Amino acid sequence: MAFTTGKDSSDVVSEINITPLVDVMLVLMVVFILTAPLLNNAVRINLPKTAATTPATPNKSVTVSVDGENRIFIDKREVALEALEPELRTLVGTDPELALSLQADQAVPYRSVAQVIAHIQRSGVSKLSVLTEPAS
């Protein structure tokens, strides 16, 4: 595509007008900036509702609890955070398929719960469930 200058019909302007190209690129950049955060949560899933079931394995479940004052309990016995991992290692040693349930008060800071989960993971527990209250 060539344009004439109007002075002489033999002179052809060979410059590209990049203003429309820049405009299109800026619009595309704005569109990508606005849509990029939405791509992380693109999959919407409606999970099925089921009735409460009982576990298929008859193994005894151990409950680790963290109360509102950051005290840690294995079943109903209080233990220190440092003693949690060795205690769980002995339980896993007696039952390698140990099922562990973790429950924490909602007032407990996340850091405390994360530390307990790290100790549980290092102790070798392979089945962990986190207990919550059903929403009303």
Automatic annotation (TrEMBL):
Topology term for the membrane: Single-pass type II membrane protein
A GO term from the CC aspect: plasma membrane
UniProt KW keywords: Cell inner membrane, Cell membrane, Membrane, Protein transport, Transmembrane, Transmembrane helix, Transport
InterPro entries: ExbD (IPR003400)
Family: Belongs to the ExbD/TolR family.
Top-level taxonomic group: Bacteria
Pfam families from the UniProt entry: ExbD
Subcellular compartments: Cell inner membrane; Cell membrane
Organism name: Pseudoduganella ginsengisoli
GO BP annotations, alphabetical order: protein transport
The protein's name in its UniProt record: Biopolymer transporter ExbD
Signal peptide annotation: none
Sequence intervals crossing the membrane: 20-39
PANTHER family: BIOPOLYMER TRANSPORT PROTEIN EXBD, EXBD MEMBRANE COMPONENT OF PMF-DRIVEN MACROMOLECULE IMPORT SYSTEM
